[in-house]
Write a structure and sequence with these properties.
320 residues; alpha/beta; 8-stranded parallel β-sheet; 11 helices; 36% helix; binds calcium ion
């Protein structure tokens, strides 16, 4: 029996019945309903693989909570996501407690299942740290064949594996050295000074990776950089995987990351980038990684991630 004037624990006491919360937009989709989701959220809560302290395993739940703070309506485009797209939340990949190689293998297997089950549904994958991108992109390559990567990050993430194995510092070396991606189809955007060793820039260039530093992005402008990135990664017909490390953002916008730094991307540029790439038919997958809710300020970084995700969705809604 419910009590008069009492609302369920954990829910907001005030509810505007005209509001459509982004959190409620992500619904389970029953296979029997015959509807294919346009976008699917999946969590890969792994951060024991981080080379510094990271509670990024809490990021998927933190972003889900943040989605409760945002509406589904985009004023600029007039699009209400809840009317334009079917979105589903598939849950989180369970991780082995102690075996990190096993964790990566689970991510690889789950994403393989994902692409078999949802071949036309744009993936929204939430890390975890950046190590999750290697097994995810590997599964992507096995399903889609030739593909390209557009990578937003302050760092190359191409560290040697001798010093620590497959960590959040190594995913793109792993992909390149195993030929799970062709360097000539890879673009890194937002690289920052004093954040990378010279040896790793040289390694990236030796593999044919296109590099756009943060300062070059500022000088050239987002539209010019993305037009080039999409051409290099996809060439107009090849599937593209977009991976976004929250630390590409300036520390003012994303304080809750293991490696905050000055001179990073502003939030308007990042939101525009997600929208532009979302609108591109070739883009089949996004991941957002390396945000640590345990060092965040008022959940601001998770709120940023939620809006990046919603902006990408608006782009997807504008495809048709
Ligand atoms: Ca990274």
């Amino acid at each position: 029996m419910s009590l008069k004037h009492v609302y369920p624990a954990g829910q907001a006491g005030f509810r505007d019945h005209l509001d459509k919360k982004a959190k409620d937009w992500f619904r389970p989709v029953e296979p029997s309903a015959g509807k294919v989701p346009d976008v699917a959220l999946l969590g890969a809560p792994l951060s024991k693989t981080s080379i510094s302290h990271s509670g990024a395993f809490m990021f998927p739940q933190s972003v889900r909570a943040a989605l409760g703070s945002f509406d589904t309506y985009d004023i600029d485009s007039g699009i209400d996501l809840s009317e334009a797209l079917i979105a589903t939340d598939l849950g989180d990949i369970s991780m082995h407690v102690t075996n990190l190689t096993s964790c990566h293998h689970r991510i690889y297997e789950t994403l393989g299942d994902y692409w078999s089950t949802y071949p036309s549904t744009t993936l929204f994958l939430l890390g975890g740290d950046h190590s999750i991108t290697a097994p995810s992109a590997r599964a992507f390559s096995e399903h889609h064949g030739e593909y390209g990567v557009i990578h937003f990050d302050a760092h190359h993430d191409m560290r040697n594996l001798e010093d620590g194995g497959p960590t959040n510092g190594t995913p793109f070396r792993t992909l390149l050295e195993n030929n799970w991606v062709d360097g000539s189809r890879m673009v890194q955007i937002g690289l920052r000074n004093f954040a990378n060793a010279k040896a790793y820039t040289e390694f990236a260039l030796s593999k044919g990776v296109t590099l756009v530093t943060m300062n070059q992005l500022m000088e050239r402008g987002l539209h010019d950089v993305l037009a080039q990135a999409v051409e290099i990664a996809g060439g107009g017909h090849i599937p593209i995987y977009v991976t976004f490390d929250l630390d590409v953002l300036d520390q003012a916008y994303a304080p809750g990351v293991p490696a905050p730094g000055p001179g990073g991307m502003d939030i308007w540029t990042a939101l525009s980038a997600m929208r532009i790439l979302g609108q591109n038919q070739a883009v089949k997958a996004f991941d957002w990684v390396c945000a640590d809710p345990t060092v965040d300020v008022r959940n601001l970084t998770s709120r940023v991630a939620a809006t990046l995700m919603l902006s990408a969705a608006v782009g997807i809604a504008r495809r048709s």
